[in-house]
Structures are given as structure tokens and as C-alpha cells.
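QUALITY CONTROL LOG
STEP: pairwise intake check
CHECKER ROLE: data steward
CRITERIA: each record must contain a sequence immediately followed by its C-alpha cells, with no blank fields

ENTRY 1 OF 2
RESULT FIELD BELOW
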Amino acid sequence: MALPRFLRPGVAWFSRTLLFRRIGPTIMPPLERMMARLTGGRVQLSGLLLPSLVLHSIGAKSGLERDVTLMYCPEPVGGGPTTEREQLLITGSNFARDMHPAWTANLLAHPDAAVSVRGVRIAVHATPITDGEREAVWRTLERNWPGYRGYERSSGRVLRIFRLVPTATGDELAAATSVLRAVRNAPDAGRTNRRRTSTSP
């Protein structure tokens, strides 16, 4: 279960402090790996705060698969280019450090990737958010996580934001849609808007 919405402003504030920005990059990755081992990959530690996923991208230089745990924001209806598939937003905040995280370079070089949500692996295509939609996307992200854009101001760089759209078809798409909708519709899951009733799969 995600962190109740009324508690998020306080936790979001702490996550932007200099203390957390210093210790977060050191303590969070091993804690995420421990949680993954304990739960068989079904639960991410950051998922106790907001919807989370494991991104499986191809290294821009190495060509090898790289995994990283990230928080994501389910995109509201009408927020992206498609309406029939769940869409996810991920942001390269990198603990407000002045460098873009490596996974963003991976997606720019190899936009076809995969994510694991609740232990289900889902093939996705990543598209960078354009300048024309950044303000609207930031409003969505900040409704999900108050003050999130503070990371951009603290880092001194324009954060890279990506929209992930599942590329599976048939039964695989149905399985992906089921798990993503379950996360989005969970209490306090960080959704900004419920989708309208649709006949689309």
C-alpha cells in the first residue's frame, strides 16, 4: 500500500533535504535489493511510498541490461498520446544531483525497454517528454508527489522525464494492463485521475 496522501508533503520535504540527498544514493540501492530478495521482486521499498517499478534498460555504452528501482506516476486519462494502454511517467531526479542518472542515457539510446511491476515484467517503449508538454506533466507529477519539481531547482539541470507505454499484445498486454490498473486504482496509489469507463482493452 502506498503512503497515504496526507503524509506525502512531509516525506517529500525530507526527501529533498541535503541530508537525504547525501545519504539516499548510498543507502537506498542496497535496501531495495534486500527488499527484492525478501519478496521475490514483488515489492519495492520505494513502493511503500508511491507506485514503483524496476526499469530494465540496455546500457548506452555496454549494451548490457541494467536494472534500477524507480518511483513512477500513473498518467491520467488524456495525459498522453494513447488512451487504450496504461501509461507511466518516470523522472531522472537522481536525488537532485547535478548529473543525469545513467538510465536516462540508456533510454535515449535504446528506447525499447521493460519494467517489472509487482513481479510482472512488461515490455515498454520510452519517449522523452517534449518541451511543449513539460508544464502539464509537471503538474501531474506534483499532484502525485508534492514539491517534486524542487529536485529540478536543486539540481540545476532540466530533469529528463519519460513516458513509458506498454508494447505487448494479446495475453501479455492483458496481464500488463491488469497489474498496472490494480496499482493505479489502489487506495492512495498516487493517481491523479481515474480513467473514464472505456470499451478499450
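ENTRY 2 OF 2
RESULT FIELD BELOW
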Amino acid sequence: MLFAQRVMAARCSSRTVYPWLLSAAFCLLPIAHAAEEASEGAEVPAAEAPAADSELTVGAAPSPVPVDDIRKFAEVFDRIKKTYVEEVDDATLINSAIRGMLSGLDPHSAYLEPSAFESLQESTTGEFGGLGIEVGMEDGFIKVITPIDDTPAQKAGVEAGDLIIKLDEQSVKGMTLDQAVDAMRGAPGSEVKLTIIRDGEEGPLEIAVERAVISVNSVKRMLLGGGVGYVRITQFQAQTGGDFVKAVQRLKKALGEKEALKGLILDLRNNPGGVLQAAVEVSDALLEDGLIVYTDGRIRSSKLRFNATPGDILEGVPVVVLINGGSASASEIVAGALQDNRRAIILGTDTFGKGSVQTVLQLDDTHGLKLTTARYYTPSGRSIQALGIEPDILVNRAKVTELQSSPIFKEADLAGHLVNGGSKKGKNSAMSEEDVKAASEMISKDFQLREGINVLRGLTILK
């Protein structure tokens, strides 16, 4: 999840060439930063948030300046400038030092240079060029968190958990995440070869993926028959909350007056997360009241509580949420909120376990920091950091083959059987033949979805 904030620092001057580094550090460290708080451009009506002009101070007083460590840093900087085999400019060394500081904190904190700001904007607006995969770093390689639905990567066979070790003929070892992402991007129609390591495979796999302009519709819907609706959220963008409400309303409208919506499958599998406010809005839409999530960190603006507002759009209709190891961050917020408030049954496998909040601190017009500033907690006080959400019903991926059985004779097959004078089963008017075929095909290939439908139907019978 992301918050966006602007940081303004005072400037200090120095007369010498390298001692300025030491002098500047003394000037900047004690400064408290002012911030303008936002949440990816979205309002936060359900949160108890601090005022926008609150100070981002850590503790009551500034920490003492680590003089010896800063002197050591300045000396290393000077030695590199004077003795490294090739000449290196000041900006390169400073930027590398900043990146090193942040990469040593956690996998999600990063120094945002101009291209990274653009990428961040693209990920929240839902349109960008590339392969269509959400990635992170693991052991120096690029790990696929999840391929995005209906993108070149998914269609080519890239799977969640794959480790990318080469892009074309170039090893990714030693690359930063931003550098690897830049290498995967390119002109639509051009091709990149991914060399990946996948659990269960004896050796590396090579997958060719054709780049395309990725325009992601984050919410998809369909009817599955028997009054069961299906909504899939591929990632949480700024508009996802509103799109989710519209999707549920359209499912109700498609059923018409003859049949009510009896249950909903909410599919969050392989959803890498996204905007915090969107996760809050989706949870709020399904809850009548109660706490959704709260965050806690060292700065005052990171201490937030998000509460549900009255109005369950399903009016108590049973919900089953599907999760797996690719469900991360905002997906885990929704699953945790619905689980702790006993509003939905969570089915699938353990989630990814990203329980931290990143704040975007803008340094100037082109540079910033993406810094982990808080952990989030489910309504019951659980932190799922590095643990994940455990499903109520554990269902692993599986392939199910229906056995061919011998013909069974029934009463209707007997000569002279009595005709049933009652009404015959009518056609489900809410679904066309094409819709029925598409739903049946999807269910037959997805064991977890099939089990979710069975759970919903059981709940409907007992209700």
C-alpha cells in the first residue's frame, strides 16, 4: 500500500569540495520534515487521519549526529573519487549511496528516480507498457509476484513464484529492481526472452514474451449459475472500489426480478495489492460496521484507523473469498477484514504476507523515497507480515478428472412410467447459452473455484 507525501529540507552550504559532504550531513539530520498527506490522490473518509500539515518528526527530539560514521562515509567517498580505476562523478556516488541505504532496510523501500515516479503513477492508474507482471527482488534475482490477467506474460505461461535469472542474454544478477523493470519494457510488438527457474522443473525455462501496451481493468464479473455471482479483482487501483460496487450491482441487474443473488465469489488470487484506499472501499462495501484495518508506525501520520460505514451492498448474502500465495498487501487487508468480521469464508492457500505500508516522500520534482513507514493490522490486531492470511478452508490447486461411469437406468427409462404432472425445470433466463458454457468451462478448470461454489451453495441451503 502506498501513501504519498512531500518532504522539504533546508539547504546548507559549504566552501570546500569534499568536507561539504560532512557539513551537509550535520545540517540535514536534525531537520523535521513537513508533509502534505495524500493517498494516491484518493480521499480517506473512513480513516481517523492526522491533519495534512502535521510534522513528520520521529521522537520528541532529534537523534544525535553519528559523527564518526559520517566522517567514515566522507572518507570512503573521498578515497573512491581519488583512487577508483575509473573517474566517477559526485552524483553517481551519492545516488548509489542513497540506493544502498534504502535497499538495506527492506525489499519495499526504494529511491525513486524519474523513471520510478513514472512507473508508480502507471501502476495506480492502470495503463502502462511492458509484459504485465508484478515483480520483486529475491536473492538478487527478479521474482514474479504474479502475472496480471489477460497480459502477454500470463498468456505466455509466466507463473507466480517464477525467478527470472536472465533477460534475453543478460543476467539480472546485480541489477536493481528498477533496472530490471526498465529492461523488460520496450516498444509494443518487440519481444523479450525470459530465462526463469520454477519449482518442480529440473532446469531453467525460456519463455518468449511479446511486449504490449498493458491496460488493466482491475474488476471483472460474471454469473456462475444457480444465483452465484463471481467478481475478480486483479489489483487495487484508485478506481477499484467504485468499480467493485458497480460490478455487484450489474450482477444483481443481470439476474433480474425472477432470481436473487444467492452468493458471491470474490477472487483475490494472484492480486499483488495496490492502493490502500481501494482495499478499504471494497471491504466497506461488504461490511455494515466494524474496523477494517489500522496502521501503526513511528510517525504520527502513519497511525490510521479505517472503519466501515453503514450499508452492506449484498445485504448479508454469503461471500467466499479465494486467496493464494500471490495475494498480497491490499488483497490481504480485504481478506483479513472480512475474516475477522466474520463476513466471509476465506478459501484457498496462505497469502504472500506483506503487512507493511510504504509512504512516498517527494524530495523534489523528479526524485523521492518510497519508504516503509508502518505495519498494518487486521481488526483483531493480527500482523500478517511474513506470515500471511491463513484460509478458513485450505484448498490447494488441483486437477480433477471426472470418471466415466456406466449408464444408470432411472424411472424415466422404464416403459410405461408415469409422467410427472408438475412443472418442468425451466431455463435460467439470466444466462445465455454462451454464458453457461463459459462458466462451466471456467469451473471445470479451477478446483478452488469449484470448492468455493460448493461452500456457497451449502451456506445458502442452511440459511
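INTAKE CHECK: passed for both entries
DESCRIPTIVE NOTE, ENTRY 2: Residues 127-215 form a domain with the Pdz3 Domain fold (CATH 2.30.42.10).
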